[in-house]
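Might you be able to review the protein record set out just below?
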Amino acid sequence: MVETESPNTASESTKKGEVFNDELLNAYTTKLKSVKQGVIVRGKIIFIGQRGVVVDVGYKSEGFVQLNEFLDISMYKPGDEIDVYVREVENREGLVSLSKQEADRIQNWSKMVKAQKDGSSVKGRIVKKVKGGYLVDAGMEAFLPSSQVDTKPLDDTKDVSGTVYDFKVVKVDEMRKNIVLSRRNLLEEQQKKDKTELLKTLKVGDIRKGTVKNITDFGAFIDIKGTDGLLHITDMTWGRISHPSEMLAVGDEVEVAILNIDKEKEKVSLGMKQNTPNPWQDVDKKYPVGSRVKGRVVNIVQYGAFVELEKGVEGLIHVSELSWTKRVANPSEMLAIGDMVETMVLSIDKDQKRISLGVKQIEPNPWNSIAEKYPVGTKVSGKVRNLTNYGAFIALEDGIDGLIHISDMSWLKKIDNPADILKKGDVVEVKVLSVDPASQRIALGMKQLQPDPWEGVAERFIVGTSITGKITKIAPFGAFVELEPGVEGLVHSSQYNEGSLHEGDEVTATIMNVSQEERKIGLNLK
């Protein structure tokens, strides 16, 4: 027998079914969102097709996003949640029309405005180079000026397209929808932070690694973790260099010592030579005065040659210390850079880091025996090496010259210019008048080879006697009268009328006074 429900039972069952369906409908309706046009909602991807992406936004109908709004659809899969902008609540196909690009644009614009206000950074990828800078994809299109890419100008050959950096938002123009970014500002902020932190930890005496950032005439700037320190040229080496580029190049990695820190001015002084022992510390013990040392010529200047005795220690051979006998005008006449020379240590000044060297001291000084070789009164011959307006230099031997002064050339003639009676290359006989080895001078005379006409003049010319002579010269103060070869007397101008006497006139005068020491004879015509 088939069992059937009683009318009452059927009625109750129907009522229960209706209640159950109402509950399901209410539950479903409660889950649906109220989607409005012009707002951003979050949805879940439920299907990816050839035309676009179907997104569940919790509405009674699904939403649809065009496929071209996704830069790289391969990055997405069903189940992923995305933010979308509601263009239409229901389009002609009955779907909610959505836009991912518009949602991104609105959200990113808000992010840019916020980043500019609070100073936070945004991440972006440099897309390509444009006039004046670069186009950056930071979730939306932004402009990066060339001057804001780095803290220093970029090399023209460097291509930064495709690189991802953090940027500061420096300008947001809502009317023009224009955004300007800066990477430089961010780097400078970080450098300032790094510098502050580094200055807190740095101590004088620390040894740090750094990179040569810039080179100048006076030194090099070293980058130590974003902080620039000055390595002065005097602190690069214990030796001598003319320019920092002789030791360093931009980009070199170096180890430097911290010499001084000025936290107020944020300046750091660095040194390289301080990393090695000071070679001048015991230099007076290694190179005592009077010792012979060998070294290499490293530099030649007008006044001398610098010789490296060891790394960091140089001495100077002054031009006057090159030869006892040669007159050296320039050290390059005797030395060349790279020559190995033996020298003698003449003096040491440790404080000033100076060593005086001499080459000529290696050999005996020939002037020490000159007085014995050329005693005063000796007759010698030599060749005229040079003429000056005050005399002639006579080469007695290699490097040894004597001087004939113009006053020692003739007893009889008044010589105005040595060239009137001598010329270079002439061989002359002379007498040695004096020798001064200390000053390296020998005085020679030509007239001393003949008797002095003034010798015994007082015996030959007696005061009060008359004598006849010829006028040789008329001067403003008087007339000179030749009494015999080499001996003249003077008639004062007060004793005759101007124009009454002439050169060549023969006159008779009285001898008024005679001075052999002063070589003077006074005459009177009256």
Observations:
- Residues 283-362 form a domain with the OB fold (Dihydrolipoamide Acetyltransferase, E2P) fold (CATH 2.40.50.140).
- Residues 1-32 have pLDDT under 50 and may be disordered.
- The CA atoms of residues 167 and 338 lie 56 Å apart.
